[in-house]
Give the backbone structure.
Amino acid sequence: MSGFDESWLTLREPYDHRARSGPVEDAVKGWAAGRPMVRVLDLGGGTGSNLRRLAPALPMPQRWTILDHDEALLAAIPARLSRWAADRDATLSGGRIAGGGLDIEVAALRCDLTGDLPLAGHDLVTGSALLDLVSAGWADRLMDSVGQAQFWTLNVDGRVEWSPGDPDDDQVMELVRRHQCGDKGFGPALGGQAIDHMEAGLRKRGATVTTGQSDWVLGPGDEAIQRALLVGYADAATAVESDEAVERWRKRRLSWIEAGRSGLIVGHCDLFAC
Ligand SMILES: C[S@@+](CC[C@H](N)C(=O)[O-])C[C@H]1O[C@@H](n2cnc3c(N)ncnc32)[C@H](O)[C@@H]1O
């Protein structure tokens, strides 16, 4: 169990897919163009959301290896991919998705990313909603060891804009940002600094880097994810500093969500480098 349960990953998946940066995805497609096949290593792959968004955008046969340390998430992958394939007139059988223009071999393996990464034999190393969890030291080791193209999508960049505004938004969100920088198993997390750190480090190492925003833009109709984010933010803020003002803020914001008059932009950033 990693703290990222399947229901949260399922709730966020359509928002993640919609938010992805077009220019960064175009850079991935440009890199892949003309290759007879692409072997993809997906770090912290959860239930396979990254594959479900990226694989159909690449026209060639693919071999995906999804790594995660959470057995419950890995166990959910076959059923999730099977339903996804069926929606595209394809079938998943023996670890291969075939039909509907797709030809994808998939392996899902348990792996703790804080240990050695099995990078060899892959053309593209990727991760969705991962890099804001890692430390600067882990990111530096990653950049030193990944010689392949790399694609990091849906990394929070620290921007959160609620509407309507509340006088306590800034104070609560500052506590949330401090919580995001706590240790998530990799040492003190980069949080909203992840993409700036990676972009600077990759350029220093001579890579060509493309970045672009991949914000969630939530409004009336997106109550379920706004409620889930509100609970997560309030819990995170309270974990940093117990303050009754946070609970009052949560209640005010919840009433606006329930009334269908709440909006929220959560800033994210994507990066491709080769
Ligand atoms: C925010 S979730 C994103 C999951 C998936 N990439 C997606 O976009 O739906 C972060 C993922 O990283 C995984 N993770 C966190 N720490 C890890 C570690 N030390 N080793 C392997 N996976 C880890 C979690 O289990 C979780 O699946």
